[in-house]
Design a protein that fits this description.
With 389 residues, this protein is α/β, with parallel strands linked by helices. It contains 14 helices and 11 strands. α5 links the parallel β3 and β4. The protein is globular, with a radius of gyration of 21 Å.
Length: 389
């Protein structure tokens, strides 16, 4: 009898089950009574009436979907307006909108590696220097680029400098601005200096910086004084601070022009739905009008960290909106998150292989619209349900 081609899936499931690493989907209701510290709605704009009305209006006017790839029928006047607004707000020359932040990162890494060089030390064309703590989308971009990739220690600008110094030819350094696991920030100014010393480009995923860091929430790249520089490219997501969905690449106009012709996740993907574009545009306008939301979300994160660490828990000091609280084991992290939910608090639960160091965590994502009372309740719930060390 022929072998069942999917038997191995059952064995893999049992192995993950024994290790406490099985993941499950949990549909949420439209109106949840839980305090939400699990999502990424940093500025509390997902349900803002101006944002939801703009999304609905865009759907009514342009339809439920973009109807095709951006190069065929999927580009609307709304897409162009959003690209202009994002570039102007973040301080870049141009922008290109994608269907997700993941797709934007895949596009940026693969397209910026370029074709193989005719001469030079690397037969692949470009050396990619990638931080060990980078998001999965950047890691996958490195793999798809088929470029020579050097993974360097986390947030270590000197390691980037040394790696670039040992290479001849094109090079691209790739980093998150704020790392999604622990919420710590990359040393962007030092990384840019290392890149410039060796003529390399710098690509920054600012998914967790936009709306939280920089003047009025203009992002970590803007805060570092690098926005608009000729050798710096940034990616952002529209699904966190802007409360919508989608992603974008920001950079020099010639880089954006290159992406239009070479980025496979742009050329072969259906354009971002008009409702998401309209919602993101409205969120940008709210943020322009209410820049204090960025400062508020940073305050909420700092206050959550202060409360849980004062009670003896181990948590990384947040550089933006993410507060990472250590758990003693994967199983303990799962139980802790479940106990929080039962007590009225939704939190994130990060376990291997999602965490590069193998340490399980609860991830609390601060929101600008949390009241002081809700901050107190949330921190209290985390402390009451904490497992024994």
């Amino acid at each position: 009898m022929p072998q069942d081609p999917f038997d191995w899936i059952d064995a893999e499931h049992e192995r993950r089950l024994a290790a406490g690493l099985v993941r499950t989907l949990r549909p949420r209701p439209a109106d949840s009574p839980l305090i939400d510290l699990a999502g990424n709605d940093y500025l509390g704009l997902t349900r803002h009436p101006e944002v939801t009305e703009a999304a609905a209006d865009a759907a009514r006017r342009w339809g439920a979907g973009a109807t095709g790839s951006r190069l065929v029928t999927g580009t609307t006047a709304l897409h162009a307006r959003l690209e202009e607004s994002l570039a102007e707000f973040c301080g870049f020359e141009a922008a290109l909108v994608f269907s997700s932040g993941y797709a934007a990162n895949l596009a940026a890494v693969t397209a910026l590696c370029g074709p193989p060089q005719l001469s030079g030390a690397s037969p692949y064309g470009t050396l990619v220097v990638s931080d060990a703590g980078n998001h999965a989308s950047l890691i996958d971009g490195c793999r798809l680029a088929r470029a020579e990739t050097a993974v360097v220690p986390h947030a270590d600008a000197e390691a980037v400098r040394k790696t670039l110094g040992a290479h001849e030819g094109r090079a691209l350094a790739v980093t998150d601005s704020v790392f999604s696991v622990d919420g710590d920030a990359a040393p962007l100014a030092a990384l840019a200096a290392a890149c410039r010393e060796h003529g390399a480009a710098l690509l920054v995923d600012d998914a967790h910086g936009l709306g939280v860091l920089g003047e009025g929430g203009r992002g970590a790249v803007h805060a570092a004084g690098l926005a608009g520089d000729a050798d710096v490219v940034a990616t952002v997501t529209l699904s966190k601070s802007l409360g919508s969905q989608g992603g974008a690449v920001l950079g020099p106009a010639r880089v954006i022009r290159h992406l239009v012709s070479h980025a496979r996740t742009f050329i072969f993907d259906t354009g971002l739905a008009p409702a998401a574009v309209g919602g993101a545009l409205a969120s940008l306008e709210v943020l322009r009008r209410e820049p204090g939301r960025a400062a508020r979300v940073r305050y909420v994160a700092t206050e959550l960290h202060r409360r849980v660490t004062a009670a003896g828990l181990t948590a990384v000091r947040p550089d933006a909106a993410v507060v990472s609280v250590r758990a003693p084991s994967p199983e303990a992290a799962v139980r802790w998150a479940a106990d929080c939910r039962t007590a009225g608090l939704a939190v994130g639960c990060f376990r291997p292989p999602s965490v590069p160091d193998g340490v399980s965590r609860l991830r609390l994502t601060a929101r600008a619209d949390l009241t002081d009372r809700q901050i107190e309740e949330a921190a209290g719930t985390v402390l009451r349900t904490a497992p024994a060390a």
